[in-house]
């Protein structure tokens, strides 16, 4: 059976035009998707049943026992951390927030090690953005800054930007000028009309120089700025000002290099400045399929997109203090629930090592680099493969994941609901 | 079966002609009935003011831009926060509170139904998710069509039936309630960083004008027999001299519906400015109300501003950019492909600003100079003019000349020369306030037929009991009692269940979302129009099959099926 218009849950592009061929309860073929999509749909390594660590290895354990023990761990903790959330759907995220609220815990999502700095910048200066279709239909200038979509978001260019045909850009690439800014010549740089190679850590300076030129203060720009020539900066500023519609996309090269959120702030303010000449937008390239959904869900329930601390009863937010890595690194956290993410693979060593010291429960379909750190793992459905639910694309467009196969695994939202209800029972008694 | 009897209620129910009558209200299974058994639960209203549940006919509380307002504003989240208590979740925020924050505050003020002012169809799923998390109000969604490519093309072809068919398909797909036009045509121009300056300017590349879009959408609205009229945010919002655009727009509107208005003009305060620049801005409320008083086909809401900090958020992207250039505050913008735009910027309305004082006066003048309160409803375009928690103060200002004079004395000294507010004697009565906060909204939204906004037999038992003894209070002098009384109900009853008591929400909510599914003959349905389907496939970034909002997003959805004249 071929299921059409399937949504790929892998990255923030949420391509929704996949044809997925299913035989029995197995995906055998994925069409239209990128290599990452195919791997996601046809991947293996799923944990068959809940497991609990023993002194020498692992025991199988029932779902009921695993859920009961998880609830007990969370209730007994003084400073529980609930982390992850980006590879599941909105119902699970929402249930996670309600558990955190119930136990006075800290809840954080993967933005914390990803586009958290972008959020801080947005909280200072706002965000002039748009949906991806605006770019597809209008943009004649595309800027990729500190990102490599060819490898990280393989269909971004073909669906939404460079290679996509749009209403006002019928000739796609011919009608568009592509500018790539990076510290190294990536695969994405190969297709650029203009590649700006900057010295490591030079993003802030280059952005400042461009802002100065766009503002008509180009006389202050020296001959070279972080390895970029004055001539090239003037040329690029002119391309941007002359654009009918320009779109900047940026990645971790900007958010996680020296300067962090100040880099993003500078890029946003360059965009603001360009809007005084023409139309310009800027958007973060979000990684996990539904990481933006975790920001959205956290925000409408708590008021904050990530790093929310309920220990005072109210929702409290102070990134750097209430962020997962910081709470772990300070050794403050005494129990953790990890859902739909892999901090074992992505966190700094000290933070990951602390997870191994405390009772950590992982709710995730797969054995991952976090599995060896945890005390219990509860396998669940994969949102977008054997579970449906809401996901928010990197531009905020909400899409409903489809369920293409049926499995015997419980949905993580249901597991979390049971943990929530069990916590209430324990607290009530 | 559950039964409830509200005893000794001092009732105002304008739609049923009841004015300050002390009576009992029997309720069975969420509806008002003629009598209940002796086993019914009893609430003693002790002679206090009892009204149908409040209805907000234009408020921004749920969806993409509202949530972005929260996302970008930790400073506001800190400005209002409550811990989990009883059945109440944690809340954060003052002018853009979290969904539960909005819901609890509305509920404790006696509001039981809210229309979200602007939902972009492509992002409708988000709005509905937040509706579910706003559990104490029945919700309705104004659906944005101002820059809709397919609509503009059908208007250019003067094919009203097609326009209607596109509206019908979209409303049904996104579970919307009504047609919203925000700066029609201007939001498409903003796709290129431009705006339109008159309702006769052509939209770039589409060769239609705002006037043509408005006229065609009015035709389509009535062809489909929608419960609400076209809901319009006029062009040129917030620009000195814009009252001319507003009057010109009102002159376009025929009288096409006997049951309600043909055009709902929202937040008209922002559209009633004289002068040519911010230096000589003045009130044109008299001109605007003269037009409205002569046109029963138009209903407006005040769009009152109140002093203090708040957040402006609208689909009117170019307006927000102008505001950014003025204030240099943080600015967000979010254009939505093929449909509309949006922008967000925080503002501070200050008594030291003459412009802000003129704005404050204009909103009140609009209400006080409109003869029929059914034609000027109380709203702040929450949170644009002020957060809705300011409504009780606005009620006080409308009921008391003394309160207005006292406030006026604290304003910028130039206010009197630019406005007429100081010379208006009118003091509104209890009945007029009831009209401006529930009966008028129910009528304008076409929700009276759904049992909203009145307390007659068969109505939904949405009831607000305020700690106000109308016979013992003189609003003209004791306006503080009025303001305080409207801030917190003694009881808010939703579908026959007490949901809030003395400022505390005491149960989990179970709201409904009302949406409209207009019937369209199969041969007119755009789903069968290959050109519509082709353009959708080529230009949207979401597949047509993934676009409609699934039923699962409306756990208690109420579909209104309309039979129009298509």
Entry summary:
The complex is a heterodimer of chains A (429) and B (566). Chain A is built from 17 helices and 22 strands.
Layout of helices and strands:
The complex is a heterodimer of chains A (429) and B (566).
Chain A: E1 2-6, E2 18-23, E3 26-31, H1 35-42, E4 51-53, E5 58-60, H2 63-76, E6 80-84, H3 90-103, E7 106-109, H4 116-125, E8 128-130, H5 132-138, E9 141-145, H6 149-152, H7 156-159, E10 177-182, H8 187-190, E11 194-197, H9 203-214, E12 224-225, E13 228-229, H10 230-242, E14 245-250, H11 252-255, H12 261-274, E15 279-284, H13 291-302, E16 308-309, E17 316-317, H14 324-329, E18 335-339, H15 343-346, H16 349-357, E19 360-363, E20 376-378, E21 389-392, E22 398-401, H17 412-428
Parallel strand pairs in A: 6-7, 6-18, 9-10, 9-14, 10-11, 14-15, 18-19, 19-20
Antiparallel strand pairs in A: 1-2, 2-3, 4-5, 4-20, 7-16, 12-13, 16-17, 21-22
Helix pairs in contact in A: 2-17, 3-13, 3-17, 4-12, 9-10, 9-12
Chain B: E1 3-13, E2 18-28, E3 31-32, E4 41-44, E5 49-52, E6 54-59, H1 64-71, H2 74-78, E7 81-82, E8 91-92, H3 99-108, E9 111-119, H4 124-132, E10 138-144, H5 149-156, H6 160-174, E11 178-182, H7 186-189, H8 210-224, E12 230-233, H9 243-251, E13 263-265, E14 273-274, E15 282-283, H10 285-293, E16 298-301, E17 308-314, H11 317-327, E18 332-335, E19 343-349, H12 354-369, E20 376-377, H13 391-399, H14 401-408, H15 415-418, H16 430-445, E21 463-465, H17 479-487, E22 491-494, E23 497-501, E24 504-505, E25 513-518, H18 530-539, E26 557-562
Structural features:
heterodimer; A: 429 residues; alpha/beta; Rossmann fold; Dimethylsulfoxide Reductase, domain 2; 2 domains; 9-stranded mixed beta sheet; 5-stranded parallel beta sheet; 17 helices; 36% helix; 21% strand; globular; B: 566 residues; Urease, subunit C, domain 1; TIM Barrel; 10-stranded parallel beta sheet; 31% helix
- Average pLDDT confidence of chain B is 97
What would you report as the Rg of chain A, rounded to the nearest angstrom?
23 Å
**Would you give the CATH topology of the largest domain in chain B?**
TIM Barrel
Instruction: Examine the secondary-structure arrangement and name the CATH architecture of the largest domain in chain B.
Output: Alpha-Beta Barrel
Low-confidence stretches of chain B: none
How far apart are the termini of chain B? 41 Å
**CATH domain class name of the largest domain in chain A:** Alpha Beta
Query: Could you tell me the radius of gyration of chain B in angstroms?
Result: 22 Å
Q: Percent of residues of chain B in beta strands?
A: 15-25%
Give the helix level of chain A as a range of percent.
25-40%
Work out the helix count of chain B: 18
Biggest β-sheet: strands ordered side by side in the sheet of chain A: 5-4-20-19-18-6-7-16-17
**Helix content estimate of chain B:** 25-40%
Structural class of chain A: alpha/beta
How many domains make up the 3D coordinates of chain A?
2
Work out the number of β strands of chain A.
22
Shape of chain B: globular
Largest sheet of chain B: 10 strands, parallel
The shape of chain A is globular
Oligomer: heterodimer
- CATH topology-level fold name of the largest domain in chain A: Rossmann fold
């Amino acid at each position: 059976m071929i299921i059409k218009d399937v949504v790929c849950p892998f990255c923030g592009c949420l391509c929704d035009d996949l044809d997925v061929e299913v035989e029995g309860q197995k995906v055998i073929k994925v069409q239209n998707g990128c290599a990452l999509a195919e791997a996601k749909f046809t991947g293996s390594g799923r944990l068959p049943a809940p497991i609990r660590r023993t002194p020498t290895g692992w025991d199988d354990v029932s779902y009921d026992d695993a859920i009961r023990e998880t609830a007990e761990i969370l209730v007994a903790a003084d400073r529980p951390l609930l982390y992850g959330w980006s590879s599941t759907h909105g119902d699970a995220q929402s249930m996670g927030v309600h558990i955190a609220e119930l136990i006075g815990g800290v809840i954080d999502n993967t933005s914390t090690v990803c586009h958290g700095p972008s959020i801080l910048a947005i909280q200072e200066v706002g965000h002039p953005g748009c949906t991806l279709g605006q770019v597809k239909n209008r943009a004649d200038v595309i800027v990729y800054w500190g990102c490599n979509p060819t490898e990280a978001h393989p269909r971004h260019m073909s669906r939404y930007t460079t290679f996509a045909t749009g209403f006002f850009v019928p000739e796609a690439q011919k009608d568009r000028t592509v500018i790539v800014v990076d510290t190294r010549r990536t695969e994405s740089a190969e297709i650029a009309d203009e590649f700006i190679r900057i010295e490591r850590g030079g993003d802030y300076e280059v952005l400042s120089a461009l802002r100065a030129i766009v503002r008509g203060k180009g006389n202050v720009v020296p001959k070279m700025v972080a390895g970029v020539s004055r001539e090239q900066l003037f040329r690029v500023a002119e391309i941007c000002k002359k654009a009918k519609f320009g779109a900047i996309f940026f990645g971790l090269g900007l958010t996680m290099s020296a300067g962090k959120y100040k880099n993003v702030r500078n890029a946003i303010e360059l965009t603001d400045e360009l809007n005084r000449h023409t139309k310009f937008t800027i958007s973060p390239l979000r990684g996990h399929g539904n990481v933006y959904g975790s920001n959205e869900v956290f925000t409408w329930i708590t008021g904050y997109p990530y790093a929310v601390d309920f220990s005072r009863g109210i929702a409290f937010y102070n990134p750097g203090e209430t962020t997962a890595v910081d709470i772990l690194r300070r050794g403050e956290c005494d129990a953790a629930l990890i859902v739909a993410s892999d901090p074992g693979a992505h966190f700094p060593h000290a933070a990951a090592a602390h997870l191994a010291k405390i009772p950590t429960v992982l709710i995730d379909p797969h054995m991952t680099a976090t599995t060896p750190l945890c005390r219990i793992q509860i396998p669940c459905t994969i949102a977008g493969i054997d579970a449906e639910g809401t996901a928010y694309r990197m531009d905020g467009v909400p899409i409903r994941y489809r369920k293409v196969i049926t499995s015997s695994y419980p949905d993580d939202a249901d597991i979390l609901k049971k943990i929530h209800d069990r916590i209430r029972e324990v607290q009530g008694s | 079966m559950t039964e409830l009897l509200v005893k000794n209620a001092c009732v105002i129910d304008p739609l049923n002609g009841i004015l300050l009558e002390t009576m009992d209200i029997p309720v069975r299974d969420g509806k008002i009935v003629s009598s209940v058994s002796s086993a019914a639960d009893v609430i003693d209203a002790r002679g206090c003011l009892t009204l149908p549940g409040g209805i907000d006919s234009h408020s921004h509380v749920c969806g993409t831009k509202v949530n972005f307002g929260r996302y970008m504003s930790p400073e506001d989240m800190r400005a209002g926060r409550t811990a989990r208590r009883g059945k109440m979740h944690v809340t954060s925020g003052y002018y853009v509170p979290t969904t539960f924050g909005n819901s609890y505050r509305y509920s404790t003020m006696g509001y039981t139904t809210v229309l979200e002012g602007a939902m972009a169809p492509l992002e409708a799923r988000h709005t509905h998710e937040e509706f579910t998390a706003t559990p104490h109000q029945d919700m309705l969604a104004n659906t944005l069509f101002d820059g809709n490519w397919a609509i503009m093309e059908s208007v250019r072809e003067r094919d009203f039936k097609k326009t209607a068919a596109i509206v019908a398909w979209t409303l049904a797909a996104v579970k919307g309630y009504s047609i919203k036009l925000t700066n029609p045509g201007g939001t498409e121009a903003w796709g290129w960083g431009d705006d339109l300056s008159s309702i006769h300017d052509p939209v770039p590349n589409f060769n239609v004008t705002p006037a043509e879009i408005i006229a065609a959408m009015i035709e389509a609205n009535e062809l489909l027999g929608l419960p609400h009229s076209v809901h319009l945010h006029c062009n040129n919002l917030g620009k000195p001299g814009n009252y001319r655009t507003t009057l010109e727009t009102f002159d376009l509107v025929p009288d096409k519906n006997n049951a309600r208005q043909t055009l709902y003009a929202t937040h008209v305060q922002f559209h009633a400015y004289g002068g040519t620049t911010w230096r000589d801005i003045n009130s044109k409320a008299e001109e605007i109300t003269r037009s409205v008083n002569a046109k029963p086909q138009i209903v407006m809401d005040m769009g009152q501003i109140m002093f203090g900090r708040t957040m402006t958020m609208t689909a009117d992207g170019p307006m927000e950019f102008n505001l950014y250039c003025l204030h240099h505050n943080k600015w967000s913008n979010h254009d939505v492909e093929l449909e509309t735009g949006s922008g967000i910027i925080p503002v501070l309305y200050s008594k030291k600003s003459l412009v802000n004082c003129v704005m404050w006066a204009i909103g009140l003048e609009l209400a006080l100079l409109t003869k029929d309160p059914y034609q000027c409803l109380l709203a702040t375009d929450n949170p644009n003019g002020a957060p809705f928690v300011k409504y009780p103060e606005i009620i006080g200002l409308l009921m008391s000349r003394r309160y207005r004079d006292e406030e006026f004395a604290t304003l910028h000294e130039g206010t009197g020369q630019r406005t007429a507010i100081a010379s208006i004697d009118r003091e509104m009565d209890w009945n007029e306030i009831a009209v401006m906060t529930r009966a008028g909204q129910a009528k304008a939204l076409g929700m009276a037929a759904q049992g909203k906004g009145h307390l007659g037999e068969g109505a939904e038992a949405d009831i607000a009991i305020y700690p106000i003894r109308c016979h013992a209070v003189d609003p003209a002098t004791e306006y503080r009692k009025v303001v305080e009384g409207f801030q917190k109900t003694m009881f808010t009853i939703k579908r026959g269940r007490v949901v809030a008591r003395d400022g505390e929400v005491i149960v989990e909510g179970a709201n409904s979302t009302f949406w409209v599914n207009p019937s369209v003959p199969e041969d007119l349905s755009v789903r069968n129009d290959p050109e519509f389907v082709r353009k959708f496939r080529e230009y949207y970034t979401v597949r047509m099959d993934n676009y409609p909002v699934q039923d699962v997003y409306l756990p208690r959805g109420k579909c209104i099926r309309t039979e129009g004249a298509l």
